[in-house]
Amino acid sequence: MESNVRVRFAPSPTGPLHIGGVRTALYNYLFAKKHQGTFILRIEDTDQTRYVANAEQYIIDALNWSNIPFDEGPNKNEKFGPYRQSERKEIYKKYAAILIENGWAYYAFDTSEELDFHRTNHEENGKTFIYNWHNREKGKLVNSLVLSTEEVKKRINSGEQFVIRFKTPADEILEMEDEIRGKITIETKTLDDKILFKSDGMPTYHLANIVDDHLMEISHVIRGEEWLPSMPLHILLYKAFGWNAPKFAHLPLILKPVGKGKLSKRDGDKLGFPVFPLEYTNEETGDVSRGYKEDGYFADAFINMLAFLGWNPGTEQEIFSLDELVQEFDLKRVSKSGAKFSPDKTKWFQQQYMQTKSNAELTDLYLPILTEKGIVKDKEFVQKVVSAIKERAVFVDDFWELSSFFFLAPKEFDEKATNKNWKPETNSLMQELIAVISSIEDFSSVNTEKVIKEFISGKEIGFGKVMQPLRLSLVGKLAGPHLFDIIEMIGKKETIYRIENAIKNI
Ligand code: GLU
Asked: Which of 5, 84, 176, 289 could potentially form a cystine with 35 if both were Cys, beta carbons 3.0 to 4.6 Å apart?
Protein backbone atom coordinates (compact mmCIF):
# COMPACT_ATOMS: atom_id res chain seq x y z
CA MET A 1 0.00 0.00 0.00
CA GLU A 2 1.28 3.44 -0.83
CA SER A 3 1.61 5.93 2.00
CA ASN A 4 1.73 9.71 1.93
CA VAL A 5 5.49 9.66 2.06
CA ARG A 6 6.75 11.13 -1.19
CA VAL A 7 10.40 12.07 -1.48
CA ARG A 8 12.45 13.24 -4.40
CA PHE A 9 16.00 13.20 -5.61
CA ALA A 10 16.45 16.41 -7.57
CA PRO A 11 19.85 16.56 -9.23
CA SER A 12 20.92 19.20 -11.71
CA PRO A 13 22.26 17.55 -14.87
CA THR A 14 25.56 19.40 -14.88
CA GLY A 15 27.84 16.37 -15.17
CA PRO A 16 28.28 12.90 -13.70
CA LEU A 17 26.66 12.18 -10.36
CA HIS A 18 29.18 12.39 -7.53
CA ILE A 19 28.94 9.63 -4.89
CA GLY A 20 27.57 12.30 -2.52
CA GLY A 21 24.62 12.60 -4.90
CA VAL A 22 24.15 8.83 -4.93
CA ARG A 23 24.17 8.89 -1.12
CA THR A 24 21.39 11.54 -1.15
CA ALA A 25 19.41 9.41 -3.61
CA LEU A 26 20.00 6.32 -1.45
CA TYR A 27 18.77 7.95 1.75
CA ASN A 28 15.67 9.20 -0.08
CA TYR A 29 15.10 5.72 -1.48
CA LEU A 30 15.56 4.02 1.91
CA PHE A 31 13.25 6.50 3.59
CA ALA A 32 10.58 6.07 0.91
CA LYS A 33 10.70 2.28 0.98
CA LYS A 34 10.74 2.12 4.76
CA HIS A 35 7.50 4.07 4.83
CA GLN A 36 5.93 2.39 1.78
CA GLY A 37 6.25 5.72 0.04
CA THR A 38 7.26 6.94 -3.40
CA PHE A 39 10.75 7.84 -4.60
CA ILE A 40 10.76 10.47 -7.33
CA LEU A 41 13.46 11.64 -9.71
CA ARG A 42 13.19 15.28 -10.78
CA ILE A 43 15.68 16.80 -13.16
CA GLU A 44 16.46 20.38 -12.14
CA ASP A 45 17.73 21.77 -15.42
CA THR A 46 16.78 25.42 -15.18
CA ASP A 47 20.37 26.60 -15.35
CA GLN A 48 20.93 26.42 -19.09
CA THR A 49 24.53 27.57 -18.82
CA ARG A 50 25.55 24.47 -16.86
CA TYR A 51 23.43 21.93 -18.72
CA VAL A 52 25.24 18.79 -19.91
CA ALA A 53 23.39 16.63 -22.42
CA ASN A 54 24.44 13.14 -21.31
CA ALA A 55 24.14 13.85 -17.58
CA GLU A 56 20.46 12.90 -17.20
CA GLN A 57 21.00 9.46 -18.72
CA TYR A 58 24.06 9.04 -16.51
CA ILE A 59 21.98 9.79 -13.40
CA ILE A 60 19.32 7.26 -14.42
CA ASP A 61 21.94 4.60 -15.24
CA ALA A 62 23.67 5.22 -11.91
CA LEU A 63 20.43 4.78 -9.94
CA ASN A 64 19.59 1.63 -11.85
CA TRP A 65 23.05 0.12 -11.35
CA SER A 66 22.85 0.96 -7.64
CA ASN A 67 19.51 -0.91 -7.48
CA ILE A 68 17.68 2.17 -6.23
CA PRO A 69 15.42 2.91 -9.20
CA PHE A 70 12.90 5.74 -9.00
CA ASP A 71 9.16 5.13 -8.94
CA GLU A 72 8.20 8.34 -10.73
CA GLY A 73 10.32 10.47 -12.99
CA PRO A 74 11.13 11.26 -16.62
CA ASN A 75 9.37 8.70 -18.85
CA LYS A 76 8.21 6.64 -15.89
CA ASN A 77 4.86 6.72 -14.17
CA GLU A 78 4.44 10.41 -14.96
CA LYS A 79 1.55 11.13 -12.57
CA PHE A 80 2.88 14.52 -11.56
CA GLY A 81 4.93 15.19 -14.69
CA PRO A 82 6.70 16.53 -16.50
CA TYR A 83 9.66 15.83 -14.23
CA ARG A 84 12.14 17.98 -16.12
CA GLN A 85 12.00 21.57 -14.93
CA SER A 86 12.83 22.93 -18.37
CA GLU A 87 9.46 21.49 -19.49
CA ARG A 88 7.57 23.30 -16.70
CA LYS A 89 8.41 26.92 -17.52
CA GLU A 90 4.80 28.03 -17.86
CA ILE A 91 3.96 26.67 -14.41
CA TYR A 92 6.69 28.74 -12.75
CA LYS A 93 5.62 31.87 -14.62
CA LYS A 94 2.14 31.48 -13.22
CA TYR A 95 3.39 31.12 -9.66
CA ALA A 96 5.81 34.02 -9.95
CA ALA A 97 2.86 36.16 -11.03
CA ILE A 98 0.89 35.03 -7.98
CA LEU A 99 3.70 36.16 -5.69
CA ILE A 100 3.84 39.55 -7.38
CA GLU A 101 0.10 39.95 -7.08
CA ASN A 102 0.21 39.14 -3.37
CA GLY A 103 3.05 41.55 -2.74
CA TRP A 104 5.57 38.81 -1.97
CA ALA A 105 7.75 39.53 -4.98
CA TYR A 106 8.64 42.45 -7.19
CA TYR A 107 10.18 43.28 -10.54
CA ALA A 108 13.72 44.59 -10.49
CA PHE A 109 15.28 46.35 -13.48
CA ASP A 110 18.79 46.99 -12.14
CA THR A 111 21.37 46.14 -14.77
CA SER A 112 24.38 44.05 -13.84
CA GLU A 113 26.57 47.15 -14.30
CA GLU A 114 24.47 49.04 -11.79
CA LEU A 115 24.60 46.21 -9.31
CA ASP A 116 28.37 45.94 -9.77
CA PHE A 117 28.62 49.64 -9.11
CA HIS A 118 26.72 49.29 -5.83
CA ARG A 119 28.86 46.35 -4.81
CA THR A 120 32.13 48.16 -5.43
CA ASN A 121 30.85 51.26 -3.77
CA HIS A 122 29.97 49.31 -0.64
CA GLU A 123 33.28 47.45 -0.63
CA GLU A 124 35.17 50.72 -0.81
CA ASN A 125 33.37 51.76 2.36
CA GLY A 126 34.07 48.44 4.03
CA LYS A 127 30.50 47.22 3.63
CA THR A 128 28.76 44.37 1.85
CA PHE A 129 25.99 45.13 -0.60
CA ILE A 130 22.82 43.16 0.12
CA TYR A 131 19.71 43.74 -1.96
CA ASN A 132 16.98 43.67 0.68
CA TRP A 133 14.64 45.61 2.96
CA HIS A 134 17.15 48.25 3.95
CA ASN A 135 17.77 49.57 0.45
CA ARG A 136 15.08 48.20 -1.87
CA GLU A 137 12.76 51.15 -1.44
CA LYS A 138 15.24 53.97 -1.02
CA GLY A 139 15.27 54.98 -4.65
CA LYS A 140 18.77 53.94 -5.68
CA LEU A 141 17.60 50.53 -6.79
CA VAL A 142 15.25 50.32 -9.74
CA ASN A 143 12.28 48.10 -8.99
CA SER A 144 8.52 47.93 -8.91
CA LEU A 145 8.48 48.89 -5.25
CA VAL A 146 9.55 52.41 -6.18
CA LEU A 147 8.43 52.81 -9.79
CA SER A 148 4.83 53.57 -10.66
CA THR A 149 2.66 50.79 -12.06
CA GLU A 150 2.59 52.64 -15.39
CA GLU A 151 6.34 52.88 -15.53
CA VAL A 152 6.76 49.17 -14.69
CA LYS A 153 4.33 48.20 -17.45
CA LYS A 154 6.05 50.46 -19.92
CA ARG A 155 9.47 49.01 -19.17
CA ILE A 156 8.25 45.42 -19.44
CA ASN A 157 6.31 46.07 -22.66
CA SER A 158 9.29 47.78 -24.25
CA GLY A 159 11.29 44.58 -23.73
CA GLU A 160 13.53 45.87 -20.97
CA GLN A 161 15.24 43.07 -19.08
CA PHE A 162 14.05 42.36 -15.57
CA VAL A 163 14.23 39.79 -12.82
CA ILE A 164 11.68 38.94 -10.14
CA ARG A 165 12.94 39.14 -6.57
CA PHE A 166 11.46 37.75 -3.39
CA LYS A 167 10.38 40.42 -0.93
CA THR A 168 11.94 38.98 2.20
CA PRO A 169 10.20 40.17 5.37
CA ALA A 170 12.23 42.94 6.99
CA ASP A 171 12.08 41.84 10.56
CA GLU A 172 10.86 38.41 11.46
CA ILE A 173 12.32 35.67 13.60
CA LEU A 174 11.99 32.52 11.58
CA GLU A 175 11.86 29.26 13.48
CA MET A 176 12.53 26.17 11.48
CA GLU A 177 12.81 22.48 12.22
CA ASP A 178 15.27 20.12 10.58
CA GLU A 179 14.77 16.37 11.11
CA ILE A 180 18.51 15.91 11.63
CA ARG A 181 19.63 19.22 13.08
CA GLY A 182 16.64 20.10 15.22
CA LYS A 183 15.47 23.68 15.72
CA ILE A 184 17.11 26.42 13.66
CA THR A 185 16.30 30.08 14.17
CA ILE A 186 17.18 32.94 11.84
CA GLU A 187 16.39 36.63 11.62
CA THR A 188 14.97 37.47 8.22
CA LYS A 189 16.64 40.88 8.23
CA THR A 190 19.96 39.14 7.47
CA LEU A 191 18.65 37.60 4.24
CA ASP A 192 18.82 39.11 0.78
CA ASP A 193 15.97 39.36 -1.69
CA LYS A 194 16.85 36.34 -3.82
CA ILE A 195 16.06 36.28 -7.49
CA LEU A 196 13.17 33.93 -8.23
CA PHE A 197 12.91 34.53 -11.94
CA LYS A 198 15.82 35.34 -14.22
CA SER A 199 15.95 37.67 -17.17
CA ASP A 200 16.24 34.67 -19.52
CA GLY A 201 12.65 33.73 -18.69
CA MET A 202 13.66 30.80 -16.51
CA PRO A 203 12.95 30.46 -12.80
CA THR A 204 15.86 30.10 -10.41
CA TYR A 205 16.36 26.93 -8.46
CA HIS A 206 14.53 28.32 -5.44
CA LEU A 207 11.22 29.07 -7.09
CA ALA A 208 11.14 25.97 -9.28
CA ASN A 209 12.13 23.74 -6.38
CA ILE A 210 9.39 24.99 -4.06
CA VAL A 211 6.66 25.01 -6.68
CA ASP A 212 7.55 21.49 -7.76
CA ASP A 213 7.86 20.10 -4.26
CA HIS A 214 4.41 21.47 -3.56
CA LEU A 215 2.78 20.31 -6.80
CA MET A 216 4.45 16.91 -6.60
CA GLU A 217 3.17 16.57 -3.03
CA ILE A 218 6.61 15.99 -1.55
CA SER A 219 6.35 15.14 2.14
CA HIS A 220 10.05 15.18 3.07
CA VAL A 221 12.93 17.07 1.50
CA ILE A 222 16.09 15.04 2.13
CA ARG A 223 19.12 16.74 0.59
CA GLY A 224 22.73 17.72 1.13
CA GLU A 225 23.93 20.16 3.77
CA GLU A 226 24.94 22.65 1.09
CA TRP A 227 21.23 23.52 0.75
CA LEU A 228 20.78 24.37 4.42
CA PRO A 229 21.38 28.12 3.81
CA SER A 230 18.46 28.07 1.33
CA MET A 231 16.06 26.64 3.88
CA PRO A 232 14.86 30.02 5.30
CA LEU A 233 13.98 31.30 1.84
CA HIS A 234 12.20 28.05 1.04
CA ILE A 235 10.17 28.16 4.24
CA LEU A 236 9.31 31.81 3.54
CA LEU A 237 8.20 30.89 0.03
CA TYR A 238 5.85 28.24 1.39
CA LYS A 239 4.40 30.85 3.73
CA ALA A 240 4.06 33.34 0.91
CA PHE A 241 2.07 30.85 -1.15
CA GLY A 242 0.05 29.80 1.89
CA TRP A 243 1.21 26.20 1.49
CA ASN A 244 2.28 23.71 4.12
CA ALA A 245 6.01 23.13 3.94
CA PRO A 246 7.35 19.58 3.75
CA LYS A 247 9.67 18.32 6.47
CA PHE A 248 13.35 19.02 5.87
CA ALA A 249 16.42 16.87 6.53
CA HIS A 250 19.86 18.13 5.57
CA LEU A 251 22.45 15.37 5.23
CA PRO A 252 26.03 15.81 6.42
CA LEU A 253 28.82 16.44 3.95
CA ILE A 254 31.06 13.64 2.71
CA LEU A 255 34.58 14.68 3.64
CA LYS A 256 38.02 14.05 2.13
CA PRO A 257 39.88 10.95 3.41
CA VAL A 258 42.75 13.17 4.51
CA GLY A 259 42.72 16.84 5.40
CA LYS A 260 39.68 19.05 5.65
CA GLY A 261 36.77 19.80 3.36
CA LYS A 262 34.35 18.20 0.98
CA LEU A 263 35.37 15.11 -0.99
CA SER A 264 36.18 16.15 -4.54
CA LYS A 265 37.12 14.50 -7.80
CA ARG A 266 40.64 15.79 -7.24
CA ASP A 267 40.96 13.73 -4.03
CA GLY A 268 40.01 10.65 -5.99
CA ASP A 269 42.52 11.41 -8.75
CA LYS A 270 45.25 12.07 -6.21
CA LEU A 271 44.66 9.04 -4.00
CA GLY A 272 43.55 6.67 -6.75
CA PHE A 273 39.86 5.97 -6.18
CA PRO A 274 36.72 6.87 -8.15
CA VAL A 275 34.24 9.46 -6.90
CA PHE A 276 31.59 8.48 -9.45
CA PRO A 277 29.40 5.38 -9.50
CA LEU A 278 29.90 4.76 -13.22
CA GLU A 279 32.65 5.64 -15.63
CA TYR A 280 31.99 8.99 -17.27
CA THR A 281 33.25 10.45 -20.51
CA ASN A 282 33.23 14.20 -20.76
CA GLU A 283 31.99 14.68 -24.30
CA GLU A 284 33.67 18.05 -24.67
CA THR A 285 37.15 17.22 -23.45
CA GLY A 286 37.12 13.45 -23.99
CA ASP A 287 38.32 13.01 -20.38
CA VAL A 288 37.29 9.71 -18.85
CA SER A 289 36.59 9.48 -15.10
CA ARG A 290 36.68 6.15 -13.33
CA GLY A 291 33.56 4.55 -11.87
CA TYR A 292 32.97 2.05 -9.06
CA LYS A 293 31.17 -0.28 -11.43
CA GLU A 294 34.01 -0.42 -13.92
CA ASP A 295 36.57 -0.69 -11.12
CA GLY A 296 34.90 -3.98 -10.25
CA TYR A 297 32.82 -3.09 -7.21
CA PHE A 298 29.58 -4.95 -6.60
CA ALA A 299 26.64 -2.55 -6.47
CA ASP A 300 25.47 -3.92 -3.11
CA ALA A 301 28.92 -3.41 -1.55
CA PHE A 302 29.05 0.13 -2.91
CA ILE A 303 25.58 0.91 -1.55
CA ASN A 304 26.34 -0.63 1.85
CA MET A 305 29.45 1.55 2.08
CA LEU A 306 27.52 4.68 1.09
CA ALA A 307 24.76 3.97 3.62
CA PHE A 308 27.36 4.19 6.37
CA LEU A 309 28.65 7.58 5.23
CA GLY A 310 26.56 9.63 7.63
CA TRP A 311 24.27 6.97 9.11
CA ASN A 312 24.78 4.06 11.48
CA PRO A 313 22.37 1.48 12.85
CA GLY A 314 23.50 1.95 16.46
CA THR A 315 24.83 -1.61 16.61
CA GLU A 316 28.07 -3.32 15.59
CA GLN A 317 26.56 -4.77 12.44
CA GLU A 318 28.09 -3.36 9.26
CA ILE A 319 26.95 -5.66 6.49
CA PHE A 320 23.41 -4.86 5.42
CA SER A 321 21.54 -5.96 2.33
CA LEU A 322 19.43 -3.28 0.68
CA ASP A 323 16.30 -4.78 2.28
CA GLU A 324 17.92 -4.69 5.70
CA LEU A 325 18.93 -1.08 5.14
CA VAL A 326 15.33 -0.26 4.30
CA GLN A 327 14.22 -1.89 7.56
CA GLU A 328 16.83 -0.18 9.71
CA PHE A 329 17.13 3.25 8.15
CA ASP A 330 16.06 6.14 10.32
CA LEU A 331 16.70 9.85 9.82
CA LYS A 332 17.17 10.09 13.58
CA ARG A 333 20.37 8.09 13.21
CA VAL A 334 21.85 10.34 10.53
CA SER A 335 24.68 12.37 11.99
CA LYS A 336 25.00 16.13 11.91
CA SER A 337 28.74 16.14 11.39
CA GLY A 338 30.52 15.34 8.14
CA ALA A 339 31.39 11.75 7.24
CA LYS A 340 34.97 11.00 6.25
CA PHE A 341 35.24 8.95 3.09
CA SER A 342 37.59 5.99 3.36
CA PRO A 343 38.87 4.20 0.25
CA ASP A 344 40.16 1.36 2.47
CA LYS A 345 36.79 0.85 4.10
CA THR A 346 35.21 0.84 0.65
CA LYS A 347 37.53 -1.98 -0.39
CA TRP A 348 36.77 -3.78 2.85
CA PHE A 349 33.05 -3.75 2.04
CA GLN A 350 33.81 -5.12 -1.42
CA GLN A 351 35.92 -7.89 0.08
CA GLN A 352 33.17 -8.81 2.53
CA TYR A 353 30.61 -8.98 -0.26
CA MET A 354 32.94 -11.14 -2.35
CA GLN A 355 32.78 -13.75 0.40
CA THR A 356 28.99 -13.66 0.58
CA LYS A 357 28.46 -14.17 -3.16
CA SER A 358 27.62 -17.72 -4.19
CA ASN A 359 30.17 -19.70 -6.19
CA ALA A 360 27.61 -20.06 -8.95
CA GLU A 361 27.14 -16.29 -9.23
CA LEU A 362 30.89 -15.65 -9.24
CA THR A 363 31.39 -18.40 -11.82
CA ASP A 364 28.99 -16.62 -14.16
CA LEU A 365 31.13 -13.51 -13.80
CA TYR A 366 34.39 -15.39 -14.32
CA LEU A 367 33.36 -17.46 -17.36
CA PRO A 368 33.39 -14.54 -19.85
CA ILE A 369 36.88 -13.55 -18.66
CA LEU A 370 38.10 -17.10 -19.26
CA THR A 371 36.45 -17.25 -22.68
CA GLU A 372 38.23 -14.06 -23.62
CA LYS A 373 41.51 -15.73 -22.73
CA GLY A 374 40.60 -18.66 -24.97
CA ILE A 375 40.07 -21.02 -22.06
CA VAL A 376 37.26 -23.52 -22.39
CA LYS A 377 36.34 -25.35 -19.20
CA ASP A 378 33.03 -26.61 -17.94
CA LYS A 379 31.07 -24.64 -15.38
CA GLU A 380 31.50 -27.22 -12.66
CA PHE A 381 35.28 -27.04 -12.88
CA VAL A 382 35.30 -23.23 -12.83
CA GLN A 383 32.96 -23.26 -9.85
CA LYS A 384 35.44 -25.39 -7.92
CA VAL A 385 38.25 -23.00 -8.87
CA VAL A 386 36.19 -20.04 -7.66
CA SER A 387 35.47 -21.75 -4.37
CA ALA A 388 39.19 -22.40 -3.86
CA ILE A 389 40.32 -18.83 -4.48
CA LYS A 390 37.53 -16.45 -3.56
CA GLU A 391 38.67 -15.85 0.01
CA ARG A 392 41.83 -14.28 -1.38
CA ALA A 393 40.01 -12.12 -3.95
CA VAL A 394 38.64 -8.61 -3.64
CA PHE A 395 37.47 -8.19 -7.23
CA VAL A 396 36.43 -10.64 -9.93
CA ASP A 397 39.34 -9.22 -11.89
CA ASP A 398 41.69 -10.74 -9.29
CA PHE A 399 40.49 -14.24 -10.16
CA TRP A 400 42.82 -14.85 -13.07
CA GLU A 401 45.93 -13.85 -11.16
CA LEU A 402 44.85 -16.15 -8.32
CA SER A 403 43.84 -19.10 -10.43
CA SER A 404 45.57 -19.19 -13.82
CA PHE A 405 47.50 -22.33 -12.76
CA PHE A 406 44.23 -24.28 -12.57
CA PHE A 407 43.97 -23.83 -16.31
CA LEU A 408 47.50 -23.44 -17.66
CA ALA A 409 50.93 -24.83 -16.79
CA PRO A 410 53.21 -22.08 -15.51
CA LYS A 411 55.30 -20.43 -18.21
CA GLU A 412 57.69 -18.83 -15.76
CA PHE A 413 59.09 -19.82 -12.42
CA ASP A 414 59.74 -17.43 -9.56
CA GLU A 415 63.51 -17.04 -9.71
CA LYS A 416 64.12 -16.31 -6.05
CA ALA A 417 62.03 -19.27 -4.98
CA THR A 418 63.64 -21.69 -7.43
CA ASN A 419 67.15 -20.58 -6.46
CA LYS A 420 66.30 -21.33 -2.88
CA ASN A 421 64.27 -24.50 -3.27
CA TRP A 422 65.40 -26.29 -6.43
CA LYS A 423 68.59 -28.03 -5.27
CA PRO A 424 70.93 -30.25 -7.30
CA GLU A 425 69.19 -33.35 -5.89
CA THR A 426 65.71 -32.03 -6.68
CA ASN A 427 65.57 -33.34 -10.27
CA SER A 428 65.99 -36.96 -9.22
CA LEU A 429 63.58 -36.53 -6.30
CA MET A 430 61.00 -35.19 -8.73
CA GLN A 431 61.60 -38.12 -11.10
CA GLU A 432 60.87 -40.48 -8.23
CA LEU A 433 57.79 -38.46 -7.36
CA ILE A 434 56.51 -38.84 -10.93
CA ALA A 435 56.75 -42.60 -10.57
CA VAL A 436 54.82 -42.44 -7.29
CA ILE A 437 52.12 -40.22 -8.76
CA SER A 438 51.77 -42.46 -11.86
CA SER A 439 50.80 -45.34 -9.66
CA ILE A 440 48.10 -43.49 -7.69
CA GLU A 441 44.64 -44.80 -8.57
CA ASP A 442 42.44 -42.66 -6.36
CA PHE A 443 43.44 -39.15 -7.38
CA SER A 444 41.42 -37.32 -4.73
CA SER A 445 43.05 -34.53 -2.76
CA VAL A 446 42.99 -36.57 0.45
CA ASN A 447 44.51 -39.66 -1.10
CA THR A 448 47.27 -37.97 -3.11
CA GLU A 449 48.22 -36.09 0.05
CA LYS A 450 48.43 -39.36 1.97
CA VAL A 451 50.51 -41.17 -0.68
CA ILE A 452 52.89 -38.30 -1.37
CA LYS A 453 53.45 -37.62 2.33
CA GLU A 454 54.16 -41.32 2.89
CA PHE A 455 56.68 -41.15 0.07
CA ILE A 456 58.44 -38.16 1.69
CA SER A 457 58.41 -39.75 5.16
CA GLY A 458 59.91 -42.93 3.72
CA LYS A 459 62.83 -40.96 2.37
CA GLU A 460 63.46 -39.40 5.76
CA ILE A 461 63.86 -35.91 4.34
CA GLY A 462 62.13 -32.65 5.26
CA PHE A 463 58.68 -32.16 3.69
CA GLY A 464 59.79 -28.89 2.13
CA LYS A 465 62.38 -30.67 -0.01
CA VAL A 466 59.56 -32.17 -2.07
CA MET A 467 56.61 -29.93 -1.36
CA GLN A 468 58.23 -26.65 -2.40
CA PRO A 469 59.57 -27.93 -5.74
CA LEU A 470 56.20 -29.60 -6.34
CA ARG A 471 54.39 -26.31 -5.73
CA LEU A 472 56.85 -24.50 -7.99
CA SER A 473 56.26 -27.09 -10.72
CA LEU A 474 52.48 -26.75 -10.56
CA VAL A 475 52.02 -23.05 -9.79
CA GLY A 476 55.31 -21.40 -10.79
CA LYS A 477 55.56 -19.65 -7.44
CA LEU A 478 55.16 -20.39 -3.75
CA ALA A 479 51.54 -19.27 -3.55
CA GLY A 480 48.03 -20.55 -4.09
CA PRO A 481 45.53 -22.77 -2.31
CA HIS A 482 46.09 -26.21 -0.77
CA LEU A 483 48.45 -28.03 -3.13
CA PHE A 484 46.61 -31.35 -3.14
CA ASP A 485 43.38 -29.61 -4.11
CA ILE A 486 45.21 -28.24 -7.13
CA ILE A 487 46.51 -31.73 -7.91
CA GLU A 488 43.03 -33.22 -7.75
CA MET A 489 41.64 -30.46 -9.95
CA ILE A 490 44.22 -30.60 -12.73
CA GLY A 491 44.43 -34.42 -12.70
CA LYS A 492 47.19 -36.98 -12.98
CA LYS A 493 48.31 -36.40 -16.56
CA GLU A 494 48.66 -32.64 -16.14
CA THR A 495 50.40 -33.00 -12.75
CA ILE A 496 53.04 -35.29 -14.26
CA TYR A 497 53.38 -33.07 -17.32
CA ARG A 498 54.02 -30.01 -15.14
CA ILE A 499 56.68 -31.75 -13.02
CA GLU A 500 58.46 -32.88 -16.20
CA ASN A 501 58.16 -29.39 -17.59
CA ALA A 502 59.74 -27.93 -14.42
CA ILE A 503 62.62 -30.42 -14.48
CA LYS A 504 63.32 -29.34 -18.05
CA ASN A 505 63.01 -25.58 -17.51
CA ILE A 506 64.33 -24.83 -14.06
N1 GLU B 1 19.00 20.77 -7.81
C2 GLU B 1 19.55 20.72 -6.50
C3 GLU B 1 20.85 19.94 -6.57
O4 GLU B 1 21.39 19.89 -7.61
C5 GLU B 1 18.57 20.07 -5.57
C6 GLU B 1 18.60 20.52 -4.16
C7 GLU B 1 17.37 20.02 -3.43
O8 GLU B 1 17.27 18.79 -3.28
O9 GLU B 1 16.53 20.81 -3.07
O10 GLU B 1 21.36 19.37 -5.65
From this structure: 5
